[in-house]
């Protein structure tokens, strides 16, 4: 594996369908160890994330900053790297672009969840939030689910138009919508990937809706209205990415729901229980295990190349 990979090289090693499959394999790997991440608040509202993980072959440490104030400034909100080490020798064998890994593994987790949980996986897809995560989710759902139509909502009209234009380069029928609540009636697939500083969805979703909410990863952050979360828990099913959601899933915590009662993605995949009726809410908060899966795939792709 080439030791230092920039954003483009990192992306080339992490095709979305293969990454979703690697995440599924990681969830079944008993050698995986993922301690709780360290989140250090920074002056000005930013955060420093230190996220280690390992399996029997490689160890990783993701070191990134998250700076919400960079939105609209031309500077990336997420910056940093993922260092990859060989467990047997201790040698560093790779350095991946942190923002690229974060965007692609988050979208791949949503893709994996949608592949197994979405009642109507063909779309159309509604994406609320037109930043890096919005772009990654459009790409992932197009490649992994065959979605051909996407509606995009964003507080920034320029960002929404830019993502819509990108979606059209992928061969998708794309449109910008001003009211995401109205678009819920037409879209069984939904992704919310905003800065999570305010509610962006509150309308009642379709009975066959699958919503991946990825923006909120602290108890104070929120994208989905509390009543909407309670309604989906009552009418359908709520699944969280990991047990860490118990103290991170702001949408569910603020809705007063017992987060510990909801199954994790890994538990759902292991149990292979038949899908129930009603809408599905997949709450994703992030986990260093997803970064480890990306590193595993990148290493294997490098060895094959």
Please explain how this structure is put together.
The protein is α/β, with parallel strands linked by helices and 305 residues long. The chain has two domains: 7-101 and 289-304, ornithine cyclodeaminase, domain 1; 104-287, 3-Layer(aba) Sandwich (Rossmann fold), CATH 3.40.50.720. Helices cover 35% and strands 24% of the residues. It contains ten helices and 14 strands. The protein has helices at 7-12, 16-27, 98-117, 132-145, 157-169, 180-183, 226-235, 250-254, 265-271, 288-304; strands spanning 38-41, 47-54, 58-66, 78-86, 92-97, 125-128, 149-153, 173-176, 189-192, 197-201, 210-213, 222-224, 237-240, 280-283. A seven-stranded parallel β-sheet has the order 8-7-6-9-11-14-13, sandwiched between helices. It has a five-stranded antiparallel β-sheet with strand order 1-2-3-4-5. A two-stranded parallel sheet has the order 10-12. Strand 2 and strand 3 form a beta hairpin. Helix 3 packs across helix 10. The chain is globular and about 55 Å long. The N and C termini lie close together (8 Å). The mean pLDDT is 95.
């Amino acid at each position: 594996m080439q030791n230092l990979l920039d954003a483009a090289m990192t992306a080339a090693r992490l095709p979305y369908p293969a990454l979703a499959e690697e995440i599924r394999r990681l969830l079944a790997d008993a050698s995986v160890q993922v301690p709780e991440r360290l989140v250090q608040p920074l002056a000005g509202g930013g955060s420093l994330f230190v996220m280690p993980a390992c399996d029997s072959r490689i160890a990783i440490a993701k070191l990134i900053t998250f700076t919400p104030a960079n939105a609209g400034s031309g500077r990336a909100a997420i910056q940093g790297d993922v260092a990859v080490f060989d467990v047997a020798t201790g040698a560093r064998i790779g350095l991946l672009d942190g923002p690229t890994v974060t965007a692609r593994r988050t979208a791949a987790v949503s893709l994996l969840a949608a592949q197994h949980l979405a009642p109507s996986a063909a779309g159309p897809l509604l994406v609320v939030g037109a930043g890096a995560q919005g772009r990654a989710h459009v790409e992932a759902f197009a490649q992994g689910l065959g979605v051909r139509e996407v509606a995009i909502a964003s507080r920034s009209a320029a960002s929404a138009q830019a993502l819509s234009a990108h979606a059209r380069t992928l061969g998708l029928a794309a449109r910008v919508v001003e009211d995401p609540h109205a678009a819920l009636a037409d879209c069984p697939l939904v992704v919310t990937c905003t800065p999570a500083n305010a509610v962006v969805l509150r309308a009642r979703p379709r009975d066959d809706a699958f919503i991946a909410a990825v923006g909120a990863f602290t108890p104070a952050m929120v994208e989905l209205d509390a009543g909407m979360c309670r309604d989906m828990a009552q009418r359908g099913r709520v699944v969280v990415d990991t047990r860490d959601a118990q103290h991170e899933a702001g949408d569910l915590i603020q809705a007063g729901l017992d987060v510990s009662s909801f199954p994790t993605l890994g538990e759902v995949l292991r149990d292979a229980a038949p899908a129930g009726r009603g809408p599905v809410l997949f709450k994703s908060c992030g986990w260093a295990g997803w970064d480890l899966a990306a590193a595993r795939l990148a290493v294997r792709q490098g060895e094959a190349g």
